[in-house]
């Protein structure tokens, strides 16, 4: 069962010979090693690269433990090189190599060596790792399977596929598992024994219960506005904990650095400025989010919003939450400001899209409600409402496009219809 992940292959191809270290990041088990050692290595062979010109080192293999010595690995790589030939260095689990930052910076001096690395623990996955390479790192972020990638190997129609995806997410190994029991156990154990343990050990966290509680609060509030003060109030009122706001901030940063959660800032469309807080958090994989809550809170509306956010990010867009201020006159004739929310503003270069996630619009009142914020934006960028209902792609009298979630997810160019 092979899943084509062409966007990452193309990203690697576009960065070949750019003189930088290609750093493949992403949450554990997202498929980074497979992309490098299977998909990309096969590409190198297909374009005529001789196997002797591809140097591979998998540091997590027992038989390769001798390479975990910096001096030895530098000497080994040097012995493989010939000045007249181009070489490709593929290194997996590079965090197992002591002083790997210095080793990689040293290897950049070889003009005929193109370097690609991955890593799978919280130290390597930290989002600031690129700075360790003094501006010579080029990051490629690997997301869990998109719905389109998932459907390549799912044995069923898109509707049943969606029902599966929205619960168990897109970590590649879950696709091959035959029973729900396997998926539940895998995701639950992965979160607890891998992601969470890595963070606790790296940052020497002693308030483990508070970290557990914070994860539950964030998982329960995806798509809802929140910030550390609000979370602190929740700790005090519901959990009766005196955890400080600074500790909450630090713990959230740790979760972001490990790519477990991502944040979306609010952007005032008319004022053209960002609003500091509150903001929204989304999980990098909805299956992990559901596992965190014991698969007890599988709310389709919030999970659909999370999936749309991840899809946009995987396509390369920066994603904000939109705020539009609208002036209204109340029953007493007094003018007041009202804030309307746009679920997502997606930006990529000169492109911008305003996107509303509406699980269902069964009534005219609901349709008017979902359109209100989009109508209030007067610029010429495309405005789209995504729905779970099976509808044909269409534009209404206000120029707003209606599209179902399947058409959006299964075509990478769907926003340009």
List the strand order in the largest sheet: 7-6-8-9-10-11-13-12
- Structural class determined from secondary elements: alpha/beta
N- to C-terminal separation? 32 Å
Mean pLDDT: 92
| CA-atom Rg in angstroms | 23 Å
Shape label: globular
Low-confidence stretches: none
Helicity level, as a percent range? 40-55%
Strand content: 15-25%
- Sheet bearing the most strands, described? 8 strands, mixed
Q: How many extended strands?
A: 13
SSE order = HEHEHEHEHEHHHHHHHEEHHEEEHEEEH
Number of helices: 16
Count of domains: 2
Keywords:
about 425 residues; alpha/beta; Rossmann fold; 8-stranded mixed sheet; 5-stranded parallel sheet; about 20% strand
Provide an overview of this structure.
Helix 1 (6-14) crosses helix 2 and helix 9 crosses helix 13 (286-292). The chain is built from 16 helices and 13 strands. The longest helix has 24 residues, at 180-203. It has helices at residues 6-14, 32-46, 70-80, 100-107, 122-125, 147-153, 158-168, 172-176, 180-203, 208-220, 228-239, 245-257, 286-292, 300-314, 364-375, 405-410; strands at 21-25, 54-58, 87-92, 113-118, 137-141, 261-268, 273-283, 318-329, 335-348, 351-358, 382-387, 394-395, 401-404. The model has no long low-confidence stretch (mean pLDDT 92). It is globular, with a radius of gyration of 23 Å. By secondary structure, the protein is of the alpha/beta class. It folds into two domains: 6-141, P-loop containing nucleotide triphosphate hydrolases (Rossmann fold), CATH 3.40.50.300; 145-417, no CATH class. The strands form two sheets. An eight-stranded mixed β-sheet has the order 7-6-8-9-10-11-13-12. It has a five-stranded parallel β-sheet with strand order 2-3-4-1-5, with helices on one face.
């Amino acid at each position: 069962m092979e899943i084509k992940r062409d966007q990452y292959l193309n990203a690697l191809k576009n960065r070949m010979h750019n003189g930088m270290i290609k750093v493949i990041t992403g949450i554990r088990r997202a498929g980074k090693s497979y992309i490098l050692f299977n998909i990309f290595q096969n590409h190198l062979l297909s374009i005529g690269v001789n196997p002797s010109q591809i140097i591979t080192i998998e540091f997590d293999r027992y038989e390769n433990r001798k390479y975990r010595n910096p001096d030895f690995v530098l000497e080994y790589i040097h012995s493989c090189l010939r000045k007249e030939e181009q070489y490709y260095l593929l290194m997996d689990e590079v965090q197992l190599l002591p002083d790997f930052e210095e080793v990689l910076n040293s290897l950049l001096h070889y003009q005929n060596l193109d370097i690609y690395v991955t890593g799978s623990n919280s130290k390597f996955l930290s989002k600031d790792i690129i700075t360790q390479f003094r501006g010579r790192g080029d990051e490629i972020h690997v997301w869990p399977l998109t719905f389109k990638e998932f459907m390549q190997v799912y044995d069923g129609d898109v509707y049943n596929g969606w029902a599966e995806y929205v619960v168990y997410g897109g970590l590649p190994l879950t696709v091959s598992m035959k029973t729900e029991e396997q998926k539940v156990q895998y995701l639950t154990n992965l979160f607890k024994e891998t992601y969470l343990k890595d963070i606790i050990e790296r940052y020497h966290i002693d308030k483990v219960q508070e970290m557990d509680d914070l994860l539950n609060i964030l998982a329960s509030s995806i798509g809802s506005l929140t910030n550390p003060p609000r979370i602190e109030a929740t700790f005090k009122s519901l959990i009766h904990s005196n955890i400080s706001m600074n500790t909450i901030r630090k713990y959230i940063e740790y979760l972001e650095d490990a790519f477990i959660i991502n944040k979306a800032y609010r952007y005032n469309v008319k004022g053209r400025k960002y609003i500091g807080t509150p903001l929204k958090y989304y999980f990098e994989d909805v299956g992990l989010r559901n596992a965190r809550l014991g698969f007890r809170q599988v709310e389709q509306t919030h999970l659909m919003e999370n999936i749309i956010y991840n899809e946009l990010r995987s396509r390369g867009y920066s994603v904000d939450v939109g705020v539009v201020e609208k002036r209204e006159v109340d029953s007493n004739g007094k003018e007041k400001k009202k804030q309307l929310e746009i679920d997502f503003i997606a930006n990529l270069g000169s492109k911008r899209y305003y996107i509303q996630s509406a699980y269902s619009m069964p009534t005219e009142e609901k349709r008017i409600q979902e359109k209100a914020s989009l109508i209030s934006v007067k610029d010429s960028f495309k405005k789209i409402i995504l729905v779970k209902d099976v509808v044909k792609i269409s534009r209404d009298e206000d120029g707003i496009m209606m599209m179902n979630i399947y058409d959006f997810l299964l075509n990478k160019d769907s926003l340009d219809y």
